[in-house]
Design brief:
By secondary structure, the chain is α+β, with helices and mostly antiparallel strands. It has two domains: about 5-15 and about 140-220, no CATH class; about 15-130, no CATH class. The chain is built from ten helices and three strands, in the order ββαααααβααααα. Strands 1-2-3 form a three-stranded antiparallel beta sheet. A hairpin with a 3-residue loop joins β1 and β2. α7 crosses α10 (about 205-220), α8 (about 175-180) packs antiparallel against α9 (about 190-195) and α9 (about 190-195) runs antiparallel to α10 (about 205-220). It is elongated.
């Protein structure tokens, strides 16, 4: 069991925030971008896919990661932006798999293009990473039914920590809610599976929260 919950002591709801940290890596051309992707820390790639959830960007909302948004806005390569935007990081078991997919798509694009693809000096891409600061909300659930009242009220930071970030720190690569529910036995398996089947990427944290709350309402409606 993880420190924030156990069958005996309950589920302690955490909140979180991201602190941005510079990697010292910046690029101007697509070739430089490709080369940098090979060496930047895993945490930087994680941040540029997932960090937008807690630090939303209001430009190019149709592009789901910072790499795709930069390709569209600064390189003016819409086709590349679309190829990068459809990558779902949940497809991969680890960041290295995601890194390889990014490299392959960019290399294919470079192979198709004869000219140098570059951004203006003031539109370079800055690779950053982030540190997750975890906060205790003081709230604790001791029974799954309490999800009905608590889920609609938790912060988006709590959604990020327990439903998204959990996937890189739990052994089962799943969310904290599902793992907690499984501790109560087969009675809550259907709700646990409903949570697991909720796609965490192509949505907003508010939409994820609403979806999970609705799954709880449906599950407990006749119980």
């Amino acid at each position: 069991m993880h420190s924030f919950y156990s069958y005996d002591t309950g589920f302690h709801i955490r909140d979180c925030a991201l602190v941005r940290l510079s990697t010292g890596v910046r690029v101007q051309t697509l070739r430089e971008f490709r080369d940098a992707l090979e060496r930047v820390p895993d945490g930087s790639i994680y941040h540029h896919f997932w960090g937008r959830f807690l630090q939303p960007q209001f430009d190019e909302p149709e592009y789901n990661n910072d790499f795709a948004a930069w390709a569209y806005r600064c390189l003016h390569e819409k086709a590349l932006a679309e190829r990068l935007s459809v990558i779902d990081p949940t497809w991969f078991e680890d960041i290295e798999g995601l890194r390889r997919e990014l490299l392959e798509r960019i290399e294919d694009y470079l192979f198709e293009k004869e000219s140098v693809i570059w951004a203006r000096t003031d539109e370079q891409f800055y690779f950053v990473q982030s540190q997750l600061v975890v906060l205790d909300t003081g709230k604790c659930m001791v029974h799954p039914r309490e999800l009905v009242t608590n889920l609609p009220e938790i912060s988006i930071g709590s959604v990020f920590y327990h439903f998204i970030d959990a996937r890189r720190r739990t052994e089962g690569k799943t969310d904290d809610f599902s793992m907690w529910l499984e501790a109560f036995g087969p009675e809550y398996r259907a709700l646990s599976e409903a949570f697991k089947s909720t796609d965490p990427y192509f949505s907003s944290l508010k939409a994820i929260r609403a979806k999970l709350a609705q799954e709880c309402d449906n599950f407990f409606m006749d119980r």
